[in-house]
Specification:
Structural class: mainly alpha
Shape: rod-shaped
Mean pLDDT: 83
Order of helices and strands: HEEHHH
Strand content: 5-15%
Largest sheet: 2 strands, antiparallel
Length: about 80
């Protein structure tokens, strides 16, 4: 009887550890992170800021064309 209780406790502990691991994994891979480790709350704002900071006009226009279906029209007007 004692061995059954011990096995049940060990299995429960392993299940809890696995559940915590799966939870941590899902949280880490459901968020965007910048190169310095900060969490990006809104990837859209990050995209607009990076396009605005581009110096090369040709590359900037290529990126705008690439994301033209994603960028809102009011933001598109401010980027040109």
């Amino acid at each position: 009887m004692k061995t059954k209780k011990r096995i049940a406790i060990v299995v429960s502990i392993i299940a809890i550890i696995v559940a915590i691991g799966i939870g941590v994994y899902s949280v880490l891979y459901s968020h965007l992170f910048t190169l310095d480790g900060k969490v990006v709350q809104d990837g859209y704002d990050e995209l607009i800021d990076r396009i605005k900071s581009m110096q090369d006009g040709e590359t900037k226009n290529e990126v705008i064309e690439l994301f033209q279906n994603v960028i809102k029209p009011e933001d598109l007007n401010s980027l040109n």
